[in-house]
Each structure stands twice: as structure tokens, then as C-alpha cells.
Amino acid sequence: MSAPVCSTIFDVLFWYIDRALNDNEYLQPQKMHRVLYLSQAYYAAINRRVLMPAVFVAHELGPLEPNVFRIFSSTERPYIEHFMLPENVEHFLDSIWRRFGHHSGDYLTRLLKSHQPYAESFARGAGSEITIAAMASFYGRPRSETQVRAEGAPDPSQVLKPRVLRTQTGKPVAVKAWSPGKIGTRK
Question: N or C: the chain end with fewer CB closer than 10 Å?
């Protein structure tokens, strides 16, 4: 896989913290790790590219990123400057948040512990890495409605929603990038 889209995991982390605050919600550390994991997994599955430089391990608490765990386990948090994310990444993160953000940290932990990438890594021993390849393979495969209900892992097409804006009258419209036509094709 090619270089990560975001320069650090903290840019994505702070986006989620800000989003939760905008929704009047406190982002619990357990839920934070699960949403970061799902973001990395679905981004790799959809784009065949890593979203952020991060290593997720199968901890007894569930999937977690050890660097984030260490920083947020301290009572004093260091200052970490964060940067704006590209619009397409923000849209992706918004899709993940809309799909999983309303669930509790406990629910997401139970769900992810039942998924194949975590289960196989944990079977190798607590602290074993959950590979990007395993995440992309599991979360990227098409699923029937029966599989979605049984596994709790929605198909990527159900996670990434098209960007919809509204006109001045409130009518929803799908948004896509503008691309100019070729010169001389006007009528």
C-alpha cells in the first residue's frame, strides 16, 4: 500500500474529538480507539491505501493503537498541533461517524472483538498486530444483509455515503466534482 493520506493519527483523532464535541458528546477513549480502527479498516478496504500511520493491536480491551493509548492514559496531555484534513478525508470520516458514532464504546468493542481480523490477531497473543491487509480483506468484501446482521460489519457501500447537499428550497441534491468539457463542444 502507498503512503498514508494523513500525516499522523492525531489529525484524524482530533477531527473525531471535535466532531463529538459538535454533537455534544464526550468521546470516550474506548470508543475513540474503535472508531479510529474502523476508519483505518474501511479506508484501506475502499481505497487500497492507508488513511493514517498507525498500528492497531489486538489488546484484551479490543483493538487499540498503542501510541494513542499511551498519550491518553496520562493525566497530562501533551500539546499536539493538528492540521486540516483534505475534504475527501473529512467526508469519509463523517461517513464513519454517522455509521458508528451513535454506538457506545462497549457495543463497538463487543462487535469488533467478534470480527475476524481482531479474533485471529488476538489468538496469536495479546498485543499482536492487526494487519492492514487483514482489515482491508475483511471489511472490503461484499456482504449480504444476512451477513451484515450476523457479523455486524456493513458492506463498504453502506458505510461511505455520497455527499448530499440541499438547495435553497431544501431539495436534496447529490454533489460531484465539476469537470469542464472539451473546448469546442459547446452548442
Answer: C
